[in-house]
Amino acid sequence: MMKGGFEVVHATLDMIQPHHEPIWDLASFGFPTTSTVSSIPRQTVENRCINLERNELSEWVEQITKQLIDDLPAETGTRDHTSLEAADTSMVCEDNFAPSVLGDFRPRKTVRRSVLDGSCGQELQWGNELGNQTDNVCENGGNDRGLSRLDDEQGLSLITLLLECAVAISVDNLGEAHRMLLELTQMASPYALSCAERVVAYFAKSMSSRVINSWLGICSPLINYKSVHCAFQAFNNVSPFIKFAHFTSNQAILEAFHRRDRVHIIDLDIMQGLQWPALFHILATRIEGPPYVRMTGMGSSMELLVETGKQLSNFAKRLGMSFEFHPIAKKFGEIEITMVPVRRGETLAIHWLQHSLYDATGPDWKILRLFEQLAPSVITLVEQDLSHGGSFLDRFVGSLHYYSTMFDSLGAYLPADDPSRHHIEHCLLHKEINNILAIGGPARSGEDKFKHWRNELARNCFLQVPMSNNSMAQAQLILNMFPPAHGYSLVQGDGTLRLGWKDTSLFTASAWTSHAST
């Protein structure tokens, strides 16, 4: 029979603790423990925002970006500017209130705050309107350590100059962009106390690479996968976002595997396999007995895939569960149906935790075609609420707001000099920023990116499976590990679960099934 909503998390604790291995500990599994051009009027922008000294970086970024775009001179109205302006025009509200420049980067529905601040009874609105950032946030009186307070003109000047530089790049004024980037790299440090300065430092570095790549016509960054995976694990230890993705997806997969005796999981980017021991344990303790489990793990390093397979195989063996692991060392956009060892009679699940760590993954339409050919019983999709498509300026605006929020959330939890925080920012978040700003540039003509995968799945022979109350219970349990003062927010609606910080949605979990499997 199907187990209760909290069992995926709790049942695993009793079993895994006596069997620690040096590479995997409880925290690594995610188990809860107690433990643009110079003509832009910069001075005008600064004067209008000088009174925002109590605002956090992510809130101020949205407002100043809207003002900067509005102040652009007419002669800079190139394709990038036009597309952004058109997006804004299409979103004008009925009461003529100026909408956010972020547009579709954030959801529009007004939904109930569900878990962290249940006592306040207020509505949490993740909308597109400017000025609602603080109105719907409960006053928790939490720890403000590390939050970016824009309390001096230097902080305002840094981000304003960064925005001007992005506009210069969008109109191919690379000489002016290079001049501004030289100034930014001398003014901003990734080790600064201010979140604003840290964000500017990493964005400036990524934009410098963009300018150089545009001059040289190349874009092929090298990735140290072990360093990235280590930073990913550190992020999992200090933030609820990865745990949220793991446990809500595990619950949806568990429900799809109910009373099935042969199951196959395809993880499009398995990394260290931190997600799967919890699911393995609950499958191994089913009343009807454990199923025969096969797993196909995809990734870019065969060495790391083989090591992950060994770890998972040893874990399954301790549980007495039959298990096979098949590594595929390719980017998921390059996978053909013949490479995936699907067998008749298996119940197939595909899991995809999306991120922006890789510089190129292949066109999205190929991934969609693979999904259609595999016809899985369930696809668990966890998306960043961030568009990877569109023009450079579109991506810059969306990513600046998104990662400003991410940096703010880390700053609310960890001090500025914390080694884990710097490791996460440098090896994880900076890699994502760099890749988002590079997409669509040199050598990226084949990278056709969907704006929202949920929309594409709905249009292409897939049915949404609403995230169950048990999945919501998993997410609530994860968030209960973090005090309300840390600002995380959980919302259930439209069949999805959304996890965000303050009023900004950052990750959305959803589940889908193929028409062919029903």
TrEMBL record:
Protein family: Belongs to the GRAS family.
Cross-referenced Pfam families: GRAS (PF03514)
Gene of this entry: LOC111313089
Sequence motif: VHIID, positions: 263-267
UniProt protein name: Protein SCARECROW-like
Residue numbers spanned by region SAW: 438-513
PANTHER family referenced in this protein's UniProt entry, alphabetically: OSJNBA0084A10.13 PROTEIN-RELATED
Region feature Leucine repeat II (LRII), mapped onto this chain: 307-339
InterPro entries: TF_GRAS (IPR005202)
Region (VHIID): 232-297
PROSITE patterns: GRAS (PS50985)
Highest rank taxon of the organism: Eukaryota
Keywords tagged on the record: Transcription, Transcription regulation
Record's keyword annotation contains Transcription regulation: yes
The keyword Oxidoreductase belongs to this UniProt entry's keyword annotation: no
